[in-house]
Amino acid sequence: MNQTDQLVDLKNLSPDALVDFLEGMGKEKFRADQILRWIYLRGVTDFSEMTDLAKSFREEISQRAIISFFTPETIEISSDGTRKFLFRLCDKRSVETVLIPMEGGRNTLCISTQVGCAMQCSFCLTGTFGLERNLTASEIVNQVCAVRKDYSVDNIVLMGMGEPLHNLENVVSALKILYASKGFDYGPRRVTLSTSGLVPEMLELGQRIKVNLAISLNATTDEVRDELMPVNRRYPLSELMQACRQFPLAPSQRITFEYILIRGVNDSQADAKRLVKLLHGIKAKVNLIPFNEHAGSAFQTPDENAIRAFQTYLLDRQIVAIRRAGKGLDISAACGQLKEKLENKLLGSGKESSLQGK
Ligand code: SF4
Questions:
Q1: If you placed Cys at 120, which of 127, 144, 212, 337 could pair as Cys (CB 3.0 to 4.6 Å)?
Q2: Is residue 28 annotated as a catalytic residue, yes or no?
Q3: 59-64 long-range contacts, Cβ below 8 Å, gap at least 24?
Q4: Is 239 part of the annotated catalytic residue set?
Q5: Does the pLDDT of residue 341 top 70, yes or no?
């Protein structure tokens, strides 16, 4: 074990844990606020730059702690302005982060929570890699820090690689860091967590921290959902929808249901009808996402008429149903696709890659 292994990465510490850490060094509570400002508002990663801390304190803390940071290894820019960042981790693995321009000049950042994913959804490339490991809280937060250096980030979605609720502890710490009023100060309404439907963890999340919840639904029968999303065999639709009814929501808040429309699989009028029934009694909005066809998947994008008819059926029954444009389609924005493409490029160029030997 080398010396850096024993140092605490301050970006792994929630604001409360930072206070505890500093108290362990005999420092006052307000020092945590100063440090949060330096790290998250000013992007400082070197204690020597923290000029409102005594020099002796800066020297002492640098013996015990580090402040990690990410620099993007590659950035791909789509014609619609979507930017995809690939970050290399200390163990040579990699994660992707996507910055999506929204209407009104605002940007949404889609961040990853795991390397790979264990959930094996059949429409998702990340699912085919399997789970390599959880990201630490600092690795989750560093995606935001790195992108904010050069771009404004108005909203954050935990919707990149990985199932966030399969990495609940680190995700909760990361959310606390994102919410810290002396740091980034993202209100919980600006952050959305998307899950494939891990029911017990959903309920635990609702008890522990506020966040917008999105459910990756994608089917209206257990038979189809079992096939698309194996998590459904553990937590079938009835349990998932019950958990949604129990999830604590602020008066104006709704649960978002992501529904990837796949030709001939889940895009019929019968599906639209069942979806309306499933959502009964839930404050919901539906995002309809036509499947993004890619090599290696037999699924197809539905035809335009089916997409419109599906959306109209929901709208006619007073369900908010928004069609999501396929942002970044020309750089394969569906989760996992960037990583595969960039890794292939690296393998092709003979550079070291986390996928070598597989
Ligand atoms: S869709 Fe999400 S939960 Fe499913 S395999 Fe892909 S990353 Fe995992």
A1: 127
A2: no
A3: 60/25, 61/25, 64/7, 64/8, 64/25
A4: no
A5: no
